[in-house]
Amino acid sequence: MSSSSSILIIAIDGGAASGKSSTARALSARFNLMHVDTGSFYRAITAALLRAKMTPDNPALVTAQLLQLNLGTRLAERRAAITVNDEVLPEAEIRSPAVNAAVSHFAAQPAVRSALLAYQRNQPNVAAENGFSGLIMEGRDIGSVIFPDAPLRFSCTPIPPNAPAAEPPKVSRIPSPNATASTRRGRRRRSPARMAPSTSIRLI
Asked: Are 201 and 154 in contact, with CB atoms under 8 Å apart?
Protein backbone atom coordinates (compact mmCIF):
# COMPACT_ATOMS: atom_id res chain seq x y z
CA MET A 1 0.00 0.00 0.00
CA SER A 2 1.27 3.45 -0.90
CA SER A 3 1.67 6.24 1.61
CA SER A 4 -0.46 9.31 0.86
CA SER A 5 2.70 11.43 1.07
CA SER A 6 4.13 9.52 -1.91
CA ILE A 7 1.01 9.88 -4.05
CA LEU A 8 1.51 11.83 -7.27
CA ILE A 9 -1.12 14.55 -7.62
CA ILE A 10 -2.04 15.98 -11.02
CA ALA A 11 -4.33 19.01 -10.95
CA ILE A 12 -6.37 19.96 -14.02
CA ASP A 13 -8.34 23.20 -14.05
CA GLY A 14 -10.79 24.37 -16.65
CA GLY A 15 -14.28 25.67 -17.24
CA ALA A 16 -17.22 23.98 -18.93
CA ALA A 17 -16.44 22.36 -22.29
CA SER A 18 -12.73 23.02 -21.84
CA GLY A 19 -11.73 19.39 -22.38
CA LYS A 20 -10.56 18.88 -18.80
CA SER A 21 -12.73 15.78 -18.27
CA SER A 22 -11.66 13.98 -21.43
CA THR A 23 -8.05 14.89 -20.67
CA ALA A 24 -8.34 13.60 -17.08
CA ARG A 25 -9.98 10.36 -18.20
CA ALA A 26 -7.28 9.79 -20.82
CA LEU A 27 -4.48 10.31 -18.30
CA SER A 28 -6.24 8.14 -15.72
CA ALA A 29 -6.57 5.28 -18.19
CA ARG A 30 -3.07 5.66 -19.63
CA PHE A 31 -1.24 5.77 -16.30
CA ASN A 32 -3.70 3.94 -13.99
CA LEU A 33 -4.35 6.97 -11.80
CA MET A 34 -7.40 7.49 -9.62
CA HIS A 35 -9.73 9.96 -11.39
CA VAL A 36 -11.44 12.58 -9.25
CA ASP A 37 -14.14 14.78 -10.83
CA THR A 38 -14.81 17.55 -8.30
CA GLY A 39 -17.70 18.97 -10.33
CA SER A 40 -19.70 15.83 -9.54
CA PHE A 41 -19.00 16.43 -5.83
CA TYR A 42 -20.71 19.82 -5.89
CA ARG A 43 -23.59 18.33 -7.86
CA ALA A 44 -24.04 15.52 -5.36
CA ILE A 45 -24.03 17.94 -2.42
CA THR A 46 -26.54 20.14 -4.24
CA ALA A 47 -28.83 17.17 -4.92
CA ALA A 48 -28.64 16.11 -1.27
CA LEU A 49 -29.49 19.63 -0.11
CA LEU A 50 -32.42 19.83 -2.52
CA ARG A 51 -33.68 16.50 -1.18
CA ALA A 52 -33.71 18.11 2.26
CA LYS A 53 -35.73 21.04 0.87
CA MET A 54 -32.83 23.47 1.32
CA THR A 55 -32.59 26.65 -0.73
CA PRO A 56 -29.43 28.69 -1.37
CA ASP A 57 -31.00 31.83 0.08
CA ASN A 58 -30.79 30.50 3.65
CA PRO A 59 -27.09 29.87 4.37
CA ALA A 60 -27.65 29.18 8.07
CA LEU A 61 -29.99 26.28 7.34
CA VAL A 62 -27.66 25.01 4.63
CA THR A 63 -24.74 25.06 7.08
CA ALA A 64 -26.77 23.09 9.63
CA GLN A 65 -27.88 20.57 7.02
CA LEU A 66 -24.31 19.98 5.87
CA LEU A 67 -23.56 18.61 9.35
CA GLN A 68 -26.08 15.85 8.62
CA LEU A 69 -24.24 14.72 5.50
CA ASN A 70 -21.61 12.02 5.91
CA LEU A 71 -19.29 12.13 2.89
CA GLY A 72 -17.35 9.12 1.68
CA THR A 73 -15.79 7.75 -1.48
CA ARG A 74 -16.64 4.68 -3.55
CA LEU A 75 -14.48 3.54 -6.46
CA ALA A 76 -15.78 2.35 -9.82
CA GLU A 77 -12.59 1.05 -11.44
CA ARG A 78 -10.41 4.19 -11.39
CA ARG A 79 -13.18 6.73 -10.86
CA ALA A 80 -13.77 8.08 -7.36
CA ALA A 81 -17.47 8.73 -6.71
CA ILE A 82 -18.64 10.71 -3.71
CA THR A 83 -21.10 9.04 -1.37
CA VAL A 84 -23.57 11.04 0.70
CA ASN A 85 -24.73 9.12 3.75
CA ASP A 86 -23.39 5.92 2.13
CA GLU A 87 -25.24 6.51 -1.15
CA VAL A 88 -23.86 7.31 -4.58
CA LEU A 89 -26.53 9.63 -5.92
CA PRO A 90 -27.85 8.64 -9.37
CA GLU A 91 -26.23 10.35 -12.34
CA ALA A 92 -29.68 11.34 -13.63
CA GLU A 93 -30.35 13.17 -10.38
CA ILE A 94 -27.08 15.09 -10.14
CA ARG A 95 -27.41 16.11 -13.81
CA SER A 96 -31.09 17.06 -13.48
CA PRO A 97 -32.42 20.53 -14.42
CA ALA A 98 -33.06 21.27 -10.73
CA VAL A 99 -29.43 20.58 -9.82
CA ASN A 100 -28.20 22.45 -12.91
CA ALA A 101 -30.13 25.52 -11.75
CA ALA A 102 -28.99 25.39 -8.12
CA VAL A 103 -25.44 24.03 -8.12
CA SER A 104 -23.62 27.31 -8.72
CA HIS A 105 -25.62 29.03 -5.95
CA PHE A 106 -24.86 26.34 -3.38
CA ALA A 107 -21.24 26.07 -4.54
CA ALA A 108 -20.73 29.78 -3.85
CA GLN A 109 -21.53 29.34 -0.16
CA PRO A 110 -18.47 29.22 2.13
CA ALA A 111 -19.87 26.35 4.20
CA VAL A 112 -20.26 24.15 1.13
CA ARG A 113 -16.82 25.01 -0.18
CA SER A 114 -15.27 24.41 3.23
CA ALA A 115 -16.90 20.99 3.58
CA LEU A 116 -15.72 19.92 0.16
CA LEU A 117 -12.24 21.41 0.58
CA ALA A 118 -11.45 19.00 3.41
CA TYR A 119 -13.06 16.12 1.54
CA GLN A 120 -11.14 16.81 -1.67
CA ARG A 121 -7.82 17.17 0.14
CA ASN A 122 -8.40 13.71 1.63
CA GLN A 123 -8.54 12.03 -1.79
CA PRO A 124 -4.78 11.21 -1.86
CA ASN A 125 -5.42 9.05 1.23
CA VAL A 126 -8.21 7.26 -0.66
CA ALA A 127 -5.88 6.73 -3.61
CA ALA A 128 -3.16 5.32 -1.34
CA GLU A 129 -5.58 3.01 0.48
CA ASN A 130 -6.69 1.58 -2.87
CA GLY A 131 -3.21 0.96 -4.22
CA PHE A 132 -2.91 3.84 -6.69
CA SER A 133 0.41 5.55 -7.20
CA GLY A 134 -1.30 8.83 -8.02
CA LEU A 135 -4.51 10.68 -8.70
CA ILE A 136 -5.69 13.18 -11.26
CA MET A 137 -8.19 15.74 -10.00
CA GLU A 138 -10.19 17.92 -12.35
CA GLY A 139 -12.36 20.92 -11.69
CA ARG A 140 -11.87 24.56 -10.80
CA ASP A 141 -9.30 26.02 -8.41
CA ILE A 142 -7.64 22.61 -8.11
CA GLY A 143 -4.11 23.82 -8.75
CA SER A 144 -4.58 27.13 -6.93
CA VAL A 145 -6.67 26.21 -3.86
CA ILE A 146 -7.08 22.46 -3.39
CA PHE A 147 -3.54 21.36 -4.20
CA PRO A 148 -1.42 24.46 -4.83
CA ASP A 149 1.75 22.41 -4.28
CA ALA A 150 0.83 19.64 -6.74
CA PRO A 151 3.90 18.88 -8.88
CA LEU A 152 1.82 18.85 -12.07
CA ARG A 153 -0.84 21.52 -12.52
CA PHE A 154 -2.54 22.15 -15.86
CA SER A 155 -5.12 24.60 -17.17
CA CYS A 156 -7.40 23.54 -20.04
CA THR A 157 -8.91 26.04 -22.45
CA PRO A 158 -11.22 25.22 -25.37
CA ILE A 159 -9.87 26.09 -28.81
CA PRO A 160 -12.35 28.02 -30.99
CA PRO A 161 -13.66 25.99 -33.96
CA ASN A 162 -12.13 28.40 -36.46
CA ALA A 163 -8.69 28.43 -34.84
CA PRO A 164 -5.75 27.19 -36.96
CA ALA A 165 -5.14 23.46 -36.68
CA ALA A 166 -2.51 22.51 -34.14
CA GLU A 167 -0.89 19.30 -33.01
CA PRO A 168 -2.81 17.95 -29.98
CA PRO A 169 -0.89 17.90 -26.72
CA LYS A 170 0.79 14.58 -25.94
CA VAL A 171 1.95 13.00 -22.71
CA SER A 172 3.91 9.78 -22.99
CA ARG A 173 5.11 9.49 -19.42
CA ILE A 174 4.09 10.68 -15.98
CA PRO A 175 7.01 11.22 -13.58
CA SER A 176 7.21 9.27 -10.35
CA PRO A 177 6.31 11.11 -7.14
CA ASN A 178 10.00 11.09 -6.18
CA ALA A 179 11.25 12.71 -9.38
CA THR A 180 12.81 16.14 -8.97
CA ALA A 181 11.13 19.23 -10.34
CA SER A 182 13.87 19.68 -12.94
CA THR A 183 13.50 16.07 -14.07
CA ARG A 184 9.77 16.54 -14.43
CA ARG A 185 10.26 19.67 -16.50
CA GLY A 186 12.72 17.87 -18.73
CA ARG A 187 10.35 14.98 -19.29
CA ARG A 188 7.52 17.32 -20.16
CA ARG A 189 9.70 19.03 -22.78
CA ARG A 190 10.73 15.74 -24.33
CA SER A 191 7.29 14.22 -24.37
CA PRO A 192 4.75 16.83 -25.21
CA ALA A 193 -1.12 9.79 -24.30
CA ARG A 194 -3.11 12.28 -26.67
CA MET A 195 -5.84 14.42 -25.21
CA ALA A 196 -8.86 16.27 -26.47
CA PRO A 197 -7.85 17.71 -29.89
CA SER A 198 -9.96 20.83 -29.33
CA THR A 199 -8.26 21.64 -26.04
CA SER A 200 -5.31 23.87 -25.25
CA ILE A 201 -3.44 22.60 -22.19
CA ARG A 202 -1.14 24.95 -20.32
CA LEU A 203 1.20 24.04 -17.49
CA ILE A 204 0.71 26.35 -14.50
From this structure: yes
Closest residue by Cα to residue 203 from 135, 144, 154:
154
108 DSSP β-pair partners: none
Bridge partners, 200 (sequence order): 157
- Give tens-digit pLDDT for 81-133: 999 999 999 999 999 999 999 999 999 999 999 999 999 999 999 999 999 99
d(CA 15, CA 112): 19
CA separation, residue 112 to residues 24, 66, 154, 171 (Å): 24, 7, 25, 34
User: Cβ atoms within 10 A of the Cβ of 80, count?
Assistant: 22
Q: What is the pLDDT of residue 186?
A: 44
pTM, two decimals, is 0.76
Q: What does the DSSP assignment read for the chain?
A: ---GGG-EEEEEEE-TTSSHHHHHHHHHHHHTPEEEEHHHHHHHHHHHHHHTT--TT-HHHHHHHHTT--EEEEEETTEEEEEETTB---HHHHTSHHHHHHHHHHHTSHHHHHHHHHHHHTHHHHHHHTT-SEEEEEESSIIIII-TT-SEEEEEEEPPTTSPP-PPP-------TTS-HHHHHHHHHH------TTEEEEE-
